[in-house]
Design a protein that fits this description.
Layout: H1 9-23, H2 35-38, H3 45-55, E1 56-58, H4 59-64, H5 81-91, E2 106-108, H6 110-123, E3 128-135, E4 143-153, E5 156-160, E6 174-176, H7 177-186, E7 194-196, E8 199-200, H8 202-216, H9 238-250, H10 257-266
Parallel strand pairs: 1-2, 4-7
Antiparallel strand pairs: 3-4, 3-6, 4-5, 7-8
Helix pairs in contact: 3-6, 5-6, 7-8, 7-9, 8-9
Length: about 280
């Protein structure tokens, strides 16, 4: 299949620029200072997928196996991919292509595997992006908040889960945060079926939508609680809900990413380290 078969000529330039952008690392996916180590890495996506699995193991997998997590194994929540590789090499200086035993792997979350895989793909010049959304295969009867990686292959985005070892996820297995938000807002889905751990419903949907929108413009962050927009207003705000609906819509199509970037930049509330101030009592 041709890379843009069925796409109008007007959009080809937009998509070409977008794919070129996704080949280039961002702040969280840059591997500055790791050139010597990364030079050993293969270019095949399947091999890079295996590299990530050999370096990072989900904290829950440690607990299910009865393994203790040493303090130096824990990854910081919003750590960059380069910092993850540095941590992996501190735990075990062997080449990155060598699969570590659990006691010498970084203990992380799905976010860490998704962002590291994205970074390794970009390092080899392959278009890739991390996505935040919800998986149906993690807990029966629920959509659990989850991070995955998309890579461009032969004219389409292939969705992969380096944390759980799954390839080519379809819409029944993974639903992006924007699709989940709109499914609940417009299609009658139960918000209570979306979440993770102790957090379910609209707050998790809201935060995941912001995380996915930011990741699509190459600002991959795990934590969203400090973002002003992540804090629901004390009273229903129809204008803000409509803005979030539009944000969700813009995450659904590649040709809308430039508008998504503009919408994020134009809203001063889409910032970090700000908490919505509650109204005064009375």
């Amino acid at each position: 299949m041709a890379p843009f078969e069925g796409v109008s000529s007007r959009l080809i330039g937009v998509l070409t620029d977008l794919l070129e952008s996704y080949r280039i690392p961002g702040e969280q996916t840059g591997l500055t200072g790791m050139a010597a180590c990364c030079g050993q890495l293969p270019s095949d996506p399947g091999a890079l997928f295996g590299v990530v699995q050999g370096l990072v193991l989900h904290e829950d997998a440690f607990r299910r196996s009865g393994l203790a997590i040493a303090p130096d194994q824990l990854a910081d929540w919003d750590v960059s991919a380069g910092q993850m590789l540095e941590q992996a090499l501190r735990l075990d200086p062997a080449p990155l292509t060598e699969r570590r035993p659990p006691e010498r792997r970084v203990a992380g979350q799905c976010f860490h595997s998704a962002v590291l895989y994205c970074a390794l793909l970009r390092n080899r010049g392959l278009p890739a992006r991390a996505r935040c959304g919800f998986g149906s295969y993690l807990q029966p009867g629920a959509w659990v908040c989850h991070w995955v990686t998309e890579r461009w292959d032969r004219g389409r985005w292939v969705c992969e889960d380096a944390d759980m070892g799954r390839h080519d996820l379809d819409a029944g297995a993974f639903r992006s945060a924007g699709r989940a938000w709109l499914a609940c807002r417009r299609d009658g889905d139960d918000p209570g079926c979306y979440g993770i751990g102790q957090g379910w419903g609209w707050p998790e949907l809201r935060g995941s939508l912001l995380s996915d929108a930011a990741a699509l413009v190459k600002d991959e962050r795990f934590t969203f609680e400090r973002w002003e927009l992540a804090q629901p207003p004390p009273e229903p705000d129809a204008a803000e809900d409509a803005w979030l609906d539009r944000l969700a819509e813009l995450t659904l199509a590649d040709e809308q990413i430039p508008r998504l970037r503009e919408q994020i930049k134009a809203n001063p509330a889409f910032t970090r380290d700000q908490v919505r101030t509650p109204p005064p009592p009375g």
